[in-house]
Amino acid sequence: MKPKTSSAAPSRLVKRPPLWRGLNSTSRSKADRRETVVALGFLVPSLTGVCIFILLPFLDALRRSFFSAMGGKPVGLDNYSLVFENEAFRLAAANTARFTLWCIPLLLILSLMLALAVHAAADASGILKTGFLLPMAIPVASMVLLWRVLFHQNGLVNRLLELLNMAGINWLGSDSAFIVLVMSYLWKNCGYNMVLWLSGLYGISPELYEAAQVDGAGRWQRFLHITLPGLRPHLFTITVLSLLNSFKVFREAYLLMGDYPHKSIYMLQHLFNNWFVTLDIDKLCAAASVMAAAVFTVILLLQKTIDREEA
Question: Among 38, 175, 289, 300, which residue carries the largest CB count within 10 Å?
């Protein structure tokens, strides 16, 4: 008799990964955990400082905006109503918005033009970078003294206008003060934004320009189809930083013209400073909350707009 053979198919051999692969994945996971721990070690001090000195005070200001300054009684939205009905707040908010709408586009365009010029002049780029970044190293008090020498009623600019048989201008006591403040902001921040644009320009491969030039593309076509798309990922960061830096111009305006400057440059920071001096903490906290919400909304809209264009 023949032995019975099983009709079942032979079982397939299960392929197991080599032992060295498992060791490699284990070592990789340990390395990842180690990098995570190191990153957290660097981030925790900064996050702690942000929470203690920024987040917690802001939450406390938000809480105070719903209470009265004297007695701490809940008042609901009364502080916000007082803020929006305040004529000084409306003037300061309008001036701040006008200043932002003028300065941000001008700063982005001028700094991009400077970055393109510095990037083209590769041999002298180091000297040019130092020269354009020099205004950031000048103390605010020294810069204010320079603006006073230039734009005082008997300053150098008016002397130059007199030599040209033109009437002098009261730069600091008229609507021209707004022009002085815009020039101050642009002069101080152009170099910083230029460096940010340069970081994006250096990230664009020169081979793209060479290929486009071989295909017959001109400078304007290369700028539109290579440079601008390559700089688009940096646009959001540069715009947000420019927006935040625009609120720091209060130092120059305050040192140049004091607590109550000309109405054309009476900013929200002037209003906040005056309310703090008079201890109107409830209105101050309500106005600060409104301002923070407005800035946060603008940043979200910018991010959404830029993400939609990239998609």
Answer: 289
